[in-house]
C-alpha cells in the first residue's frame, strides 16, 4: 500500500465467515476480503478445493486498516482472543488444515509483533498456542457469496450458533475498539 498509515493484515482463525464478522466491528478497519492463502497447489483455488484439505490453503481474511486508528498489535490481540489458538487444524466442528489458526505477515515488523503478542498471551491459555506465523505469499479472493457472509446471512443457524457468540465475546473483551464504542 502506498500510504503508510493504510496497511494490510491477514489472519486465518478457522472459518473466514467468523473472522470477517469480528473485524467488521473494529474501528479503523476499512475493508475485509475473505479468501485463501498458504497453499501449495498452483492456480486459483475454489472453495470446494479448499474444503477437500488437499490444497494446503487456509481460509483467511485480509484486512485493510488505518494504523492511526487501530494498531496491528491490537488487531493481533483481537484475533488471538476471538478464536481458539490452541487447537491444531480445528475451530469447533470445522476440522482440517484449511481451518488452522495462522497469522500471515506482510513484513518483518508484523512477524515480530505477532510473535510478541503470542508470547504475551500464552500465559492466559490452558493449552499451548499453536497459531502458525507465516509469510504471506499469494492471496486469493474467495467467491462473492463468502464476502460479508454474516451480514447477509444472520438468520442462518451457523451464524446464530457459531458467529453470534463470537461477536458477544468480542464486544465484552474489546468494547473500546468497536466502531460503535462511545469513547
Give a description of the structure.
The protein has a six-stranded mixed beta sheet with strand order 7-6-1-3-2-8, covered by helices on one side. Strands 4-5 form a two-stranded antiparallel sheet. 32% of the residues lie in helices and 22% in strands. The chain has helices at 16-23, 47-51, 72-81, 108-121, 149-152, 157-173, and strands at residues 6-13, 29-37, 58-66, 90-91, 94-95, 101-105, 132-135, 140-141. The chain has one domain (6-174): Peptide methionine sulphoxide reductase MsrA (Peptide Methionine Sulfoxide Reductase, Chain A, 2-Layer Sandwich). The protein is α+β, with helices and mostly antiparallel strands.
Strand order of the largest sheet: 7-6-1-3-2-8
Structural class: alpha+beta
Number of domains: 1
CATH class: Alpha Beta
Shape: globular
**Taking all residues together, what is the mean pLDDT?**
93
Relevant CATH superfamily = Peptide methionine sulphoxide reductase MsrA
- Number of helical stretches of at least 4 residues: 6
Count of β-strands = 8
Distance between the termini: 29 Å
Main sheet properties: 6 strands, mixed
The topology string of helices and strands comes to EHEHEHEEEHEEHH
Measured as a percent range, the helix fraction is 25-40%
